[in-house]
Amino acid sequence: FSSGFVTIAHHAIVDVYLTFFVTLAAFLLLRFVATLKDAWLYLAFFVIGLAASSKYNGASLLLAATIFPILFGGTHWRRGLLRLLGRLVLAYLLALAGFLIGTPRAFLNATTHLTELASAMARQRVYAGPRPIGLIGQWDRLLDGLGPLLFLLFALAFIWAIFQAARTIIVAFRTPHSEFRIPYDGRFYLALLLILIAFELPIALSQFYPMRYMVPAYPLLAVLSALMVDDLWRSLNEAGRRWGAALLVLAVLAVIFFSGLRYASVILIYANDSRVAASNALREMIPPGSRTEHTLYPPHLPSQERVVEHYPLKVFKFEEDIA
């Protein structure tokens, strides 16, 4: 019930595809944490390659995925540096394969692709603008996309997860070095935090952070919230505080209800979009053979009956770019 997600879902932007692959990669990494089977980890690396193909900052998940076998893997992952490096090289090759499958041009025409990529990166001011970095300035965008109640729930879940992950790490380091193992109860909090931090790292350092950049983090925050609510509900019931468990359920239902209202309001806005009515009116008003001009997106007019002229419109990220 995120109004931010339903907003970007109505636009042809790559953040929707990135959301899918980030969520799928997180699921596969959590399956590796739960089962300690290497196949889940290798598959997660492949999906991270697909995420990077959708949008380059999806590659930041490689940071978390690289740490996972060291923290959560079995003893065969920590049995010698060369063996660890060999397994990681295989994992990175799978990630590269995923990227090339999603972006075949990078393989079939590598020189042109890299040249155009370098040129595009040189024109970016994402990390050299006048705004504060995302670590400071992204929170109002997150609030706009989630709404106050969902934002509060996700913020509490994030703080709760930090507390649980810290406790898990302390318990792990108190065990003998030869028996080092992350406790099972808290490893999912730690795993989700690592994935979330790895994904958010480029945004936290960036000075350009529209709402759509943060949408792929919504499912991860939702899972953290579900884990927190489940832990609290179990603790309250085990302590015999049934009234507390009932209040917790009512609070969650209130968040779902009001977030659902925001979700429905955005759907109604798009269902009654004035641009649709304007396009229909223009189709009837403009006679065939007329010349139409536009800057960004043209109205839905039969192109074979009209001459369409497009004038490119330059969009500036920052006010300081306008000279």
Notable traits:
single chain; 2 strands; mainly alpha; two-stranded parallel ribbon; 323 residues
Topology:
Layout: H1 3-8, H2 15-35, H3 38-54, H4 61-72, H5 81-102, H6 105-108, H7 110-122, H8 134-137, H9 139-146, H10 148-173, H11 184-205, H12 211-214, H13 218-238, H14 242-271, H15 274-285, E1 291-294, E2 307-310
Parallel strand pairs: 1-2
Helix pairs in contact: 2-3, 2-4, 2-11, 3-4, 3-5, 4-11, 9-10, 10-11, 10-13, 11-13, 13-14
Could you explain the architecture of this structure?
The longest helix is centred in the last third of the chain and has 30 residues. The chain has a two-stranded parallel ribbon. The two termini are 41 Å apart. The chain has 15 helices and two strands. 69% of the residues lie in helices and 2% in strands.
Average pLDDT? 80
**How many strand elements?**
2
Beta fraction: under 5%
Q: Could you tell me how far the N terminus lies from the C terminus, measured between alpha carbons in angstroms?
A: 41 Å
The dominant shape is flat
Oligomer: single chain
Tally of separate helices? 15
Poorly predicted runs are none
Largest sheet, spatial ordering of strands:
1-2
Largest sheet: 2 strands, parallel
Helix/sheet category: mainly alpha
What's the alpha carbon Rg, rounded to whole Å?
Answer: 24 Å
Helix amount: 55-70%
- Spell the H/E element sequence: HHHHHHHHHHHHHHHEE
